[in-house]
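Sample 3 of the quickstart, ligand calcium ion:
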Amino acid sequence: MRRRHREIGGTILLFPAGNLAQSCLKQGSPAGRANAGEAVFAVSTHFAYMEGRINAGRRTSGMRLLLVEDNEELSALLVKSLEASGYGADAVTTAVDALNVLGSTHYAAVILDLGLPDADGSTVLRTLRQRQNAVPVLILTARDGVNDRVAGLRAGADDYLVKPFAVEELVARIEALLRRPGQLLGRSLELGNLVFDTVGRQLFIDGQPHMLSSRELAVLEILLRRPGRVVAKRVVEDQIFGLSGDVGSNAVEVYVHRLRKSLQDLSAAAAIHTIRGVGYLITAT
Ligand code: CA
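Result:
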């Protein structure tokens, strides 16, 4: 297929040869009814679908990922790398396109840049979760964006990577996300004889309510959302302390230690394991 490149408002749109916008107009698609600015998004989104179909022929794992990244060079590099690792990868560059595509297409996971030209990536994430879409999301953030990372995790991200990062790490993290059992959106998280009500912030063991400190509960929640999977210490740290910014070097260890002791004292049928130098995981016992 021949393509033309056009630069509009800092976003490079790829048009297939032939006049797609004209055909959208003829078919009475949203692009035909929208004003010029919206038509640009619609055309761009349409291309993303086409690109997805093109990429679909090359993938080998059956896992299809959506990459939302406005840096064209980085996006192209990541798509190539993901495909080389056996994934299908579709790429869009704006929040609007991302939400459009995610509204109609199921992806195994989403790689989401937070700094997008039309909206913050965390807005995309929040909207997704409001739609009850539990697709695993890994966010990409700038080096110093601690607050962004925290906002992203709180908006429902599963993991994050700080730019610049090694592509191998991205692939490894995607693999980890895809092993996730998918209770991200659960209001109530269960493991062994534990039930954690994430809305009421209350832990029940064998049906009995128990009091824990808010930080112990926060540690418990992040581990329970990924049962049997190692959660990186820095992810726990950022989610719990990031905004306050005054984390002692062993603060997470302290809270994990307290939580572990509380669970033991309460005869919980679950244990927290420390994976030295990596993080923590919770398993049923
Ligand atoms: Ca960006």
